[in-house]
Amino acid sequence: MVGAENSHTVAIARVLNVDKKIPGVRATHVWGETAGHAKDASQRGEIPTIVRRAEEMIGEVDAVVFDHRHGRDHLPAATPFLETGIPLFIDKPFCYRRAEGRKFLARARQLKVPVCSFSTLPKQASFKQLKKDVAKLGKIYTVISTGPCDIRSKWGGIFFYGIHQVDMILRLTGYDFYRTQIVKGKGQNHSANILFKSGTVGTMNLVGEGRTPFHISVVGEKGRIDQEIITDESMYLTGIKDFVRMFKTGKTVETDETMLGPVAVLESLEKSVAKPQARVGAGL
Questions:
Q1: Is CATH 3.30.70.100 what the domain over 121-231+263-281 is classified as, yes or no?
Q2: Any bridge partners for residue 177, and if so which?
Q3: Sign of the C-alpha dihedral, residues 52, 58, 63, 66?
Q4: Which residues pair with 31 in a beta bridge?
Q5: pLDDT tens per residue across span 166-189
Q6: Is domain 7-120+235-254 in CATH 3.40.50.720, yes or no?
Q7: Where are the alpha helices (DSSP H) in 64-97?
Q8: Average pLDDT of the segment spanning 52-71
């Protein structure tokens, strides 16, 4: 596991090492941004080996999880491992710039290295059921998501928590987005619009105050659905099973669209944060 500042590192390690939810799979090595982060993850996640340099894991592990708080750190850290040919799970967001992500995935295909990345929210049973229900609505007119997000976060601004809402919206609407815009509020609460060529309008309520639960509202030609995204009893388990399956089989349901689509939207929205009156072009 590369990266220990993010809480996901300990959460994933505890599922594997403490709760032993997936037989035969363990987190064995960890590198941390600081010695303190590495020690904390090692202790709480029962990860036996701490390395001073991430590359010390090469030849010692069968697969790697990258888990930084800021998406800009993911691909630079993953590149040396990509070249060795072992499978990689890269936590959300996959990267900070879609051009960088495109290049990385092209190299992964060239080397035939399995790679996947996703938010954990679309992996929850409540979201999977929502997606099935939305499919019955026919043409989708609007999708409105609500959730926590600090557009000025030091870990990538809107990327840091906005990835969860964007990933869910795109998995419901498809990836034919073409324009975005941030609408700033007077305090810490804002909204973002995503326009799709299909005619669907996506809206994200970015709540910077308090800790609001994630919620989705969908209006289609055959009705409306409003649903809070309830997390599973073990929030990370389904996602871990997905990337472990890829580690073992080399196959993943994730695609360039599912991994790069959210990055393209967030990169566009980041520009709109700087110029909120502008409607910024997006697209893969």
A1: no
A2: 196
A3: positive
A4: 2
A5: 999 999 999 999 999 999 998 999
A6: yes
A7: 74-82
A8: 96
